[in-house]
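From: lab user (bench 3)
To: helpdesk
Subject: output format question, protein + pyridoxal-5'-phosphate

Hello, I'm new to running complex predictions and I'm not sure whether the block I got back is the full result or only part of it. Here's what I submitted:
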Amino acid sequence: MDNLTVKDYYQRYIIGCYGKEDFVFVKGKDVWLWDINGKKYLDFFPGWAVSGLGHCPKEVVNAVCKQAKKLMHVANNYYIDVQALCAKKLIEISFDGKVFFCNSGAEANEAAIKLCRLYGSKTGRYKIISMKNSFHGRTLATVTMTGQEKYSAPFVPLPEGFGYAEFNDISSLNSSIDDKTVAVIVEPIQGEGGINVADKQYLKHLREICNQKDLLLIFDEVQTGMGRTGHYFAFQHFDVEPDIMTLAKTLGGGFPVGAMIAKKEIADLMVPGTHASTFGGNPLACSAAIAVIETIQKKKLLENVSFLSLYLISELRKLQGKFPVIKEVRGIGFMVGMELKVPAAKFVARCRNNGLLLNCTHETVVRIMPPLGIKKSHLIKGLSIIKKSLVEEFGN
Ligand SMILES: Cc1ncc(COP(=O)(O)O)c(C=O)c1O
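Helpdesk reply: Thanks, we reran it on our side. This is the complete output you should expect:
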């Protein structure tokens, strides 16, 4: 198919709920993507942070192909060997708990919402407090839990049982908690909200409040998880353990996998009949996730993120010194935001035309999330495109 045919079919046959850039990508390898015309792009935002090991990582491709030839799907009313192994591996790298598998971040958060409702049912509590500027998904409940009205406003009436507090603000949280509150959910680093990093003290305080008031603490690590910050999970960076953690994106390395992990005593509230997913924890998905975890370990990708992110952030800060249009550079590991003083979409488009894929979020923030195993030479190339694009867009 050529470019025009693809676009024509989209126009005619696909529901238009996504804003589209005028590109058709047909091939990917590591940090590179190729469009339908054969042009090559350096990808510093692979698959919206899904392709954390880069495009088509051979370990994941091999694991999925091998599993596909053996057994592609088994229903969850039978035991699934790779699902058991995947859960064991996830628990070994996170905290003492149990896993529910699903297919996306929104579903992982839906599972967390339902688990909190089960937890609160004995005391008549059901309300979950989330943070302003957060993002938790697009299902009706998760879009309501998302602390950005623009996503939920068209879908009223919204489900009940959600409240909101300012991010990084304990007094705002305290005033949002009432006798119906059962849980608090937070992204340790807000992604869609513009790469806003939680203060360590704030998270510690949050943990104490949850302990005192018998509230469940949920960390949405859909974006921050699986090595993005240089630890497997951001909570390890902040030294604050949640009761429930939700995952997706890099977990499957390009294959759709979501998971909710909950501490054992809480997890055990989910008994047969309370929750399910037909595809959740499917053998293909679990073999992909196992390959992701093993590759992070074998290739020492956490070390690579910790080491090279210092270089990336310091080079971006040098650019900030040269280009007054850059307001701030912030982030941890390979979850970096470069906030401009002006809307960033045109700059991101300029970078794309110059061969570098980035993302613009929250109007003014350039989101940079390269694959965990990226080499310094690729960072140098990407940074030179960023510099060239800054000059072209804003002068020097
Ligand atoms: C922090 C966070 N939670 C949840 C989601 C929803 O994930 P999904 O699109 O896989 O449903 C996202 C997606 O961007 C996210 O960034």
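A quick orientation on your result: The first strand starts at residue 25 and ends at 29. Let us know if anything else is unclear.
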